[in-house]
Design goal:
By secondary structure, this protein is of the alpha+beta class. Helix content is about 35%, strand content about 25%. The protein has eleven helices and 14 strands. Strand 10 and strand 11 form a beta hairpin. Helix 2 packs parallel to helix 3.
């Protein structure tokens, strides 16, 4: 789905959407740093946001927009998070809405705003205003790639996707751009994801679908166990596909939700794999738990362990660190019933280390994508968590982030 010829079209693949990304001088690098996404046709909107008690000003502003049920645009910047900026931060977030709305001819409460970057620094509003106006002037059906590049920070690349599905006899399109590389452990009720679709669906069901799929996608990743002040996932649905509006759960709703789920899981995995300085993409699959919550908790305990993550960076099959993380996760488990596998090879079984073919295990540890299976044998529930390793480069990136 995500490598098709439409992927680079991203958020402009659905009918009626345009986008742009420009250089406003907010990033020290001088790269693209202001993005605008727009639909002239009013869109129903849904969103999920960081649950961090220290949330950025644009999070509060955008929550108010989502509460209205409709929107026309998203304005976002990278290089400055506008977090922990007090009353001035709130004024600047509101100004972003007002500048964008005036340039587009809509209302301020029709504009979602998002920021990412350094915390505790106020937005340079002169540069922001110029950037927004330039982005609006450059809005294009081919502008998604620049918009995606304008929201990244330490990412090595912009995450995007596009796909379509038949709903109610109509071809319905979806597109998305996302960023996230460090300070990543979303727990949504510094990661941004903007999804567009030309499906016709009520704002109530749009929110229901998004809230449910976020739980099994973005809320199942961790790069470093740190939750950002700025996380948000927003979906705009403008109905331009012409399908009969989805107003009740049924086959059309399930088709919509399934496609949204595929998009969110795909982007979540890309974010985890592109963790700052990452050299390994790790999938932690926990089975045999008493509940999904238990399986997730055990998986996250493994995924967040610095000792586990550094062991995989060094290609050291140190299963003791994995079973230790499961043991202190707080999830009911019996060591004598638990099995741990690396790449399908048992390394710990029923209380002791397994007899392992070290040559075969070394080949597993040398791979980029590695699956860690944890079999609790306590129930029927399971969960999958995605993460990455910790490398020297991760320390370097974060040691020098502010400077």
């Amino acid at each position: 789905m995500f490598e098709d010829t439409f992927a680079k079209q991203g958020v402009t693949y659905p009918q009626g959407f345009t986008a742009a990304g420009v250089k406003a001088g907010i990033k020290k690098s001088g790269n693209l740093d202001v993005a605008v996404i727009y639909t002239e046709k009013e869109a129903h909107i849904a969103g999920t946001f960081t649950t961090n008690a220290v949330a950025a000003a644009p999070v509060y502003a955008s929550k108010r927009v989502v509460a209205t049920g409709t929107a026309h645009a998203i304005a976002a910047n990278a290089g400055c998070a506008n977090a922990c900026t007090g009353e001035q931060g709130d004024k600047d977030a509101a100004a972003m809405q007002e500048i964008t709305a005036k340039a587009l001819g809509c209302q301020p409460d029709d504009v979602i705003v998002a920021s990412t970057g350094v915390i505790g620094v106020t937005l340079p509003m002169d540069k922001m205003e110029k950037g927004i106006k330039q982005a609006v002037a450059e809005l294009s059906p081919t502008g998604s790639e620049n918009a995606g590049n304008a929201i990244i920070t330490t990412d090595t690349y912009s995450k995007c996707c596009a796909t379509e599905v038949v709903i109610g006899g109509k071809n319905v399109r979806f597109g998305a751009i996302a960023k996230g590389s460090g300070m990543i452990q979303p727990n949504m009720a510094t990661m941004l994801c903007f999804i567009t679709t030309d499906a016709a669906i009520s704002s109530k069901l749009l929110q229901k679908a998004l809230s449910e799929v976020v739980e099994t996608s973005f809320n199942m990743i961790s790069v470093d166990g740190d939750m950002s002040t700025n996380d948000m996932v927003v979906v705009l649905a403008n109905g331009a596909a012409g399908n009969e509006e989805i107003t009740a759960e049924g086959a059309d709703y399930e088709a919509f939700k399934s496609t949204l789920d595929d998009i969110c899981k795909g982007l979540a995995q890309r974010i985890a794999a592109d963790g700052e300085g990452a050299t390994k993409f790790l999938t932690v699959h926990v089975t045999g738990a008493k509940s999904f919550a238990d399986a997730k908790q055990a998986g996250m305990s493994v995924a967040k362990s610095p000792l586990v993550k550094t062991a995989f960076f060094g290609e050291d099959p140190n299963w003791g660190r994995v079973i230790c993380a499961v043991g202190y996760s707080g999830v009911p488990m019996i060591p004598e019933k638990t099995v741990v596998k690396f790449g399908g090879i048992p390394v710990y079984a029923y209380g002791v280390g397994a007899d392992v073919d070290m040559e075969a295990l070394a080949k597993v540890m040398a791979q980029h994508d590695i699956v860690i299976d944890v079999e609790l044998n306590e129930g029927d529930a399971e969960a999958t968590v995605w993460t990455c390793d910790f490398s020297y480069e991760y320390v370097k990136i974060n040691g020098e982030y502010h400077t």
